[in-house]
Amino acid sequence: MDKQITLYAAKICPYTQRVEIALSEARAEYTRFEIDLQNKPAWFQPQVNPESKVPTIAYGGPPVPPSQPSPESVKITESLVLLEFVADLFPQSRILSSDPVERAKTRFFIDFFSTRVAPPHVAALLRGESFEPLIRGLLGFQELLSKEGMYAMGDQFSIADIAVAPFILRLETAVTNELGVYEPGEGTKFWSCYQSHPKFERLRRYAAALKERESVKSTYDSEYIKNAYSKRFEMFKAQRKVAAAATAA
Ligand SMILES: N[C@@H](CCC(=O)N[C@@H](CS)C(=O)NCC(=O)O)C(=O)O
């Protein structure tokens, strides 16, 4: 019998969604357990993840309720490690090529996104910095997309797509709803440039293909993310006001 998989997850978390997409592509049977990040259960950090983060997979061990994790299951963390783990467990999902060159290209693509797109994305939304570095990062990222195929590496949907999709979806939800600590109007300005400028044509087609993928659609609830981001950014804005007032005093 296959070993059991329990995914400790949070709906708001893009890293969690990566793993959910991969498991969905693999048609894996698993138990999902939502962790309230504002009020984590006391057993989570000592028994599941010493870093106290989602996503974490508990793999194998006896059948136990997720809230009573067994010391006999292996606990695996870090979304990118988990994507490769799911790909290894379910090779028929074909989300990671067996060809060494394709694998290297896939990892390079993910690394580029993590180092050139994610940081300016966070800077714009959470620190209110200019969207210009994000635009430059996205244009560089776009150059790595396959020219003919629908997805990053061609027509085969892969962990390259899975790694970036949750962030691309959340960026759209954030800026189209002006959610972030940036000046009002900046999100809409960025979005209308992205939506209308010919230089973003390939990226727009790619984003549309990601949004249409069933595994991506079924793991993303834009209304939920909109409400959760709205609350989170209101809190950040209030904290920034307090910090600014303290600096001025
Ligand atoms: N590098 C980790 C990042 C995971 C992460 O930061 N998860 C966040 C939620 S999106 C978390 O659990 N934070 C702990 C907390 O909020 O206390 C990964 O790729 O899995």
TrEMBL record:
The keyword Oxidoreductase applies. Keywords: Oxidoreductase. Pfam families: GST_C_2, GST_N_3. It comes from the Eukaryota. GO terms for cellular component: cytoplasm. Residues 99-233 form the GST C-terminal domain. One of its GO terms (molecular function) is glutathione transferase activity. InterPro entries: Glutathione-S-Trfase_C-like (IPR010987), Glutathione-S-Trfase_C_sf (IPR036282), Glutathione_S-Trfase (IPR040079), Glutathione_S-Trfase_N (IPR004045), GST_omega (IPR005442), GST_Omega/HSP26 (IPR050983), Thioredoxin-like_sf (IPR036249). Residues 3-94 form the GST N-terminal domain. This is Glutathione S-transferase. The lineage of its organism: Eukaryota, Fungi, Dikarya, Basidiomycota, Agaricomycotina.
